[in-house]
Design goal:
Layout lengths: L4 E9 L5 E10 L4 E5 L6 H9 L6 E6 L2 E2 L10 E4 L11 H12 L6 H11 L14 H13 L5 E5 L7 H18 L2 E6 L2 H7 L2 E6 L2 E6 L1 H6 L4 H6 L6 E8 L7 E3 L4 E3 L6 H5 L7 E6 L4 E3 L9 E13 L4 E6 L8 H4 L18 H9 L29 E5 L10 E7 L4 E3 L5 E3 L11
Parallel strand pairs: 3-8, 3-9, 6-7, 7-8
Antiparallel strand pairs: 1-2, 1-4, 4-5, 9-10, 11-12, 11-14, 12-13, 14-20, 15-19, 16-17, 16-19, 17-18, 20-21
Helix pairs in contact: 2-4, 3-4
């Protein structure tokens, strides 16, 4: 049996009073594989421990299959947890470690049939008679997973189970975890800071920052349509290109986004997303371009929706199956430590969306025109604090391309930008293009 798990406005604070989880609302459907993703200290393990009953919930409600479960003890929640450090009994063999929870649940029953079935599923039959000290890291983690699977729980809670393993073994076990959870059909919540694990494993990914849920959606949507600058910068390798842009929307000319010495000319007729950018006329914005959103090609080879720019090669990274080219396009990188840091700057006011007011007011709020304060909260590179600033490689634009291109430092190269992959963020770091929500109905 699998189960639904719901968190409603759940908060957790420790002795100093700072909330490590702040009003988290999240619904996990039966059989879903949900990944909690975020940097260290964002509260994802605390969320997992509150679901397991290992941490008390200070505020909010936990519902298991629709029933209130805040006060339910861990033993009554029918969940199995897999830890980062394996947590095996050193004086017990693999068979005894897997069978231990079965003997606790049913003292008179023989655990051997279920232990043997679990071992066959994981391919660890030859490890059952060994002590943990005689096993490698990957073998110990398989035994730890076997201990969780043998119980036939209603949910798996996995707290960074692969972080202590080498890269090759992580890739192998990641595929095993995906196969096993699909076969078992059990609700799974998986905590990690590794975006590769999150994108390859999860049915949905929930991104946390400073205890606050930033976005929850499928891996494809979270990557292609990040809700804000933090999600965009945290997910994706190489890191997304973030550039300072200035919207120019004259009434008698083409609409453009200036990138310093060059500009992106938005094609006519303007799409709905680009029409909404008119509200940002004269305002600076943050332009986001993934490395695959730009290609190296002659300007005459532009496809519909592509606009030309040029770049000077600063650095070439050979990756084997591809190369990453660092270009200098004369643009200014957007260094936004306040918007990208793992935890928001203390004392920053929390902005809340209003549900009252006219349709025009709400539309202007969604596009950023109705917000008070400075035009943009983007720090200049020289103003960024050295302790928090990223170590950036040369250039302002990274482009992914095939390894057959012969590029060298100092070459002037024609580039084409696919506007279908253009991301634009406002002064608060929220995505405004593509527009984050539908237009409101007049009846709302």
């Amino acid at each position: 049996m699998t189960r639904a798990i719901s968190l409603h406005d759940v908060s957790k604070a420790y002795t100093r009073g700072a909330r490590v989880v702040d009003r988290l609302t999240l619904d996990i459907t039966p059989g879903e594989f949900l990944v909690l993703l975020g940097p260290s200290g964002c509260g994802k393990s605390t969320v997992l421990r509150m679901i397991a009953g290992l941490e008390e919930i200070d505020e909010g409600r936990l519902l298991l299959d629709g029933e209130y479960a805040n006060d339910l003890p861990p033993s009554g929640r029918d969940m199995a947890m897999v830890f980062q450090n394996f947590a095996l009994y050193p004086n017990m063999t693999g068979r005894d470690n897997i069978g231990f929870p079965l003997r606790i649940e049913s003292p008179g029953a023989d655990p051997r049939p279920r232990v043997d079935a679990t071992a066959r599923m994981l391919g660890i039959e030859d490890l059952l008679d060994r002590l943990p000290g005689q096993l490698s890291g990957g073998e110990r983690q398989r035994v730890a997973m076997g201990r969780a699977i043998a119980r036939h729980p209603s949910a798996f809670l996995m707290d960074e189970p692969l972080s202590n393993l080498d890269a090759k073994l992580r890739t192998h076990l990641r595929a095993e975890i995906s196969r096993l959870t699909q076969e078992l059909g059990v609700t799974t919540i998986y905590v990690t800071h590794d975006q590769a694990e999150a994108m390859s494993l999860g049915d949905r990914v929930a991104v946390l920052r400073g205890g606050v849920l930033q976005q929850v959606d499928t891996p494809r949507v979270v990557y292609a349509l990040p809700g804000n600058v933090f999600v965009a910068a945290f997910i994706g390798t190489p890191r997304i290109n973030l550039l300072r842009g200035l919207v120019r929307a004259p009434l008698d000319g083409a609409m453009t986004i200036s990138l310093g010495k060059q500009f992106l000319r938005l094609p006519e007729p303007l799409s709905l997303d680009h029409q909404l950018l008119r509200v940002q006329q004269g305002r600076e914005v943050i332009v986001g371009l993934r490395s695959e959103a730009v290609r190296i090609a002659k300007h005459s080879a532009a496809r519909p929706g592509e606009v030309p720019i040029t770049g000077l090669v600063e650095h070439v990274e050979f990756q084997g199956h591809e190369i990453l080219v660092h270009f200098n396009t004369g643009s200014s990188p957007a260094v936004v430590p306040e918007l990208e840091a793992p935890r928001p700057r203390p004392g920053r006011p929390v902005r809340r969306r209003r549900r009252d007011g006219s349709v025009l007011t709400r539309l202007r709020e969604r596009t950023g025109a109705g917000r008070a304060g400075p035009v943009i909260a983007v720090d200049r590179p020289e103003a960024a604090a050295p302790a928090t600033a990223d170590v950036r490689l040369p250039g302002d634009l990274i482009v992914r391309t095939t390894p057959d291109l012969a590029l060298r430092h100092g070459m002037q190269v024609p580039l084409l930008v696919d506007l279908a992959h253009l991301l634009v963020f406002d002064q608060h770091g929220d995505r405004i293009c593509p527009h984050p929500d539908r237009l409101p109905d007049l009846g709302e």
